[in-house]
């Protein structure tokens, strides 16, 4: 305790580690000494960003879930582990405190979304789904009251999705401000005329699809400032 760095207040030590270069730095810091370990493991915000890019990351993510306690979390999951939906089930009990969620890979979007959003998600502000395979079906029955940013990328072999389902997903997000949608040719179906859907909060819309002409006339965007 006579070492100067160990005389730093716990709040300052935690603040320093917020500016770490990589996650390995955080884990290594908990092994410096007992003071550092007790300080860092008692700082939930340090453990709020969970990145799972391979199966070897699952154990670390579960440690982060435990140490983050009740803090809001940000989760990124990619293909290598999504194939095993048991991984997603590990996050389900914590979905109510998730602020941002990104999932991508050769996934069954409908099944993954149902598993993730089976309970209320009052804090979720950013949702990103990038699917390269597996059936999509409908993903329109998930109310997301706090969602402000949605990124939906459905590429080749993603199955099909009805435009009416896509519109209903938008309308279930009353605070939605930014939409990023990229849909591969042949994924969107159901091009029959629809009633106009009003998205009162959307200010930024980016849309890439071969059927964009049939979709935009069905959207009312009174606050739109940017269209791409």
TrEMBL record:
Q: Which Pfam families match?
A: F-box-like (PF12937)
Which ranges carry the F-box domain?
A: 2-50
Q: Which organism is it from?
A: Thelephora terrestris
Q: What is this protein called?
A: F-box domain-containing protein
Report the InterPro entries cross-referenced here: F-box-like_dom_sf (IPR036047), F-box_dom (IPR001810)
